[in-house]
Design goal:
- Residues 200-249 are annotated as: Disordered.
- InterPro entries: CBM2/CBM3_carb-bd_dom_sf (IPR008965), Cohesin_dom (IPR002102).
- This is Cohesin domain protein.
- Residues 234-249 have a biased composition (Low complexity).
- The chain crosses the membrane at residues 259-280.
- With 293 residues, the protein is an alpha+beta fold.
- The protein is built from three helices and 14 strands.
- The chain has helices at residues 2-36, 42-53, 261-290, and strands spanning 67-72, 76-78, 82-95, 97-103, 109-111, 123-128, 134-140, 148-161, 165-166, 169-177, 183-192, 195-197, 232-233, 239-240.
- Strands 6-7-4-10-11 form a five-stranded antiparallel β-sheet, covered by helices on one side. A four-stranded antiparallel β-sheet has the order 1-3-8-5, with no helix packed on it.
- A hairpin with a 5-residue loop joins strand 13 (232-233) and strand 14.
- The longest helix has 35 residues, at 2-36.
- The protein is rod-shaped and about 140 Å long.
- Residues 28-47, 49-58, 226-235 and 239-259 have low confidence and may be disordered.
Length: 293
């Protein structure tokens, strides 16, 4: 019989450890459930605090706060930028849990889901309110943790600018709960002004009409190519076939694109022949006028 009792002892020990683990697990689940009840509002928050503390005495004084501030990371942003808003409190005493409501204009700002944080230890959760124009952040200490004291950041929230306008963010109200589950309501904690402007679009230069280059088929001035019937009158009154018409710059002007080397050589030979004819004509004219051999 002693051996039978001895063989059951380890089993009882293992069963005891398993039972203890189950008790701890149930307590943790109960704490989490109680903490999440904070989301439902201040009344449930007070009840959850009382459950977590196991009915602590009510001799504790109500939560007190020296002052509140609401600040933005930038007073002016453009559409598409992200701005952080911080709600802080100074001179805090005996703050065990709270619910904070922060309002904004959804036409100008959009809350970044999951960005709500606080520097107070414990459980916290931030979610968009049912009206779509506020964020509700709940925070509570767990178990027998001491209440928060001193200068605290109650909430830090991120917003994306989605439209131009006044994007002021206001800490509208808060429910503060002390260690004895006594609740205190406060309103108008402060406002952070934020101006949102539309993204500036740089103007583009309109297309301009470029002047013509003077080539074939353009509207620009001519390039001075020679014409077939252009002549100049020499000093003796005769025509000089050396010259070119229009405003060309020389007798050898050409289009430069279609004239071949052979055509250029022929043209030069023609010019030499014409020059000899003109010289002979001038010589005969001088002989007729002055009788010079």
């Amino acid at each position: 019989m002693d051996r039978a009792v001895g063989s059951r002892a380890p089993q009882r020990g293992a069963a005891g450890r398993l039972a203890a683990r189950r008790v701890v697990a149930r307590r943790l689940v109960a704490q989490r459930v109680a903490a999440r009840r904070v989301v439902a509002g201040a009344a449930t928050l007070t009840l959850a605090g009382a459950t977590l503390l196991g009915g602590a005495g009510a001799a504790s004084a109500a939560t007190t706060v020296g002052s509140y501030t609401v600040t933005a990371s930038a007073p002016a942003v453009e559409v598409g930028d992200t701005v952080s808003v911080t709600v802080a409190a100074t001179g805090v005493s005996d703050l065990f849990a709270y619910e904070l409501t922060v309002g904004f204009d959804p036409e100008v700002l959009e809350y970044v889901d999951g960005s709500g944080t606080t520097d107070i230890s414990g459980f916290h959760e931030a979610a968009l309110g049912p009206d779509g124009s506020s964020v509700v952040l709940m925070q509570t200490k767990l178990g027998t943790s001491p209440a928060a004291e001193g200068d605290l950041t109650l909430a830090t929230l991120d917003f994306v600018a989605v439209g131009a306008g006044d994007g002021a963010v206001t800490a509208e109200r808060a429910t503060l709960v002390d260690a004895a589950t006594q609740a205190t309501e406060v309103t108008d904690l402060g406002t952070a002004p934020i101006t949102v402007t539309a993204v500036a679009v740089e103007p583009t230069d309109p297309p301009t009409d470029e002047p013509g280059t003077g080539g074939p088929g353009t509207d620009g001035p001519g390039t001075g190519e020679p014409t077939d019937d252009a002549t100049l009158v020499d000093s003796d009154g005769g025509s000089d076939p050396w010259s070119t018409g229009g405003t060309g710059s020389g007798s050898l002007a050409s289009t430069g694109a279609t004239v071949g080397l052979a055509a250029g050589a022929a043209f030069l030979a023609l010019l030499v022949g014409v020059g000899l004819v003109v010289a002979a004509r001038r010589h005969r004219a001088r002989q007729a006028e002055g009788g010079v051999e």
